[in-house]
Design goal:
This protein has about 140 residues and is mainly beta. The chain has helices at about 20-25, 65-70, 110; strands at about 10-15, 35-45, 50-55, 75-80, 85-90, 95, 120-125, 130, 135-140. The protein starts with 9 loop residues before the first strand and ends in a 6-residue tail after the last strand.
Length: about 140
């Protein structure tokens, strides 16, 4: 049996789609963190067959809109004194910035590097986002950089 210590004060990012944990772990910079963190992959789940979990023994600032964009089924549990004090459920954000990079070579963001990469939710059911500048369509679920 795998045993990961209890979080005293920190965050537990739960219900991550199996296989997406490493991407989020890296995006959060936890691979270079000075505090304890754990990435647990392919955990059996009641809601889905498998899931990933990230445990962070520290309170860090997270852009929840990015987590919602990656997987709207993610929950974040805030832990204080080894107890869950708040549970935050993600959802697809209306807008994401600096997460997706437009691949359209004619988009203004391809030549003007100072223009922020901004995408707006175009279809909630299909989880699709549209570039604010050129209308290119992208599916939610991946981050870059």
């Amino acid at each position: 049996m795998l045993n990961v210590d209890t979080i005293k004060n920190g965050l537990v990012i739960d219900h991550i789609k199996a296989g997406c944990g490493p991407q989020i772990f890296h995006w959060l910079g936890l691979d270079n963190a000075s505090f304890t963190s754990a990435l647990i992959m392919n955990v059996q789940s009641k809601k889905s067959e498998r899931k990933d979990i990230i445990k962070i023994d520290n309170i860090i600032n997270i852009d929840y809109s990015v987590l919602g964009y990656i997987d709207p089924n993610i929950t974040v549990n805030i832990i204080k004194d080894e107890k869950i004090v708040k549970k935050i459920r993600m959802e697809l954000p209306e807008r994401v910035e600096k997460v997706i990079h437009c691949k359209n070579p004619r988009c203004i963001t391809a030549t003007e590097k100072y223009v922020p990469q901004v995408f707006k939710l175009a279809d909630r059911e299909k989880a699709q986002y549209r570039c604010e500048y050129c209308d290119a369509l992208y599916s939610a679920g991946t981050i870059e950089g």
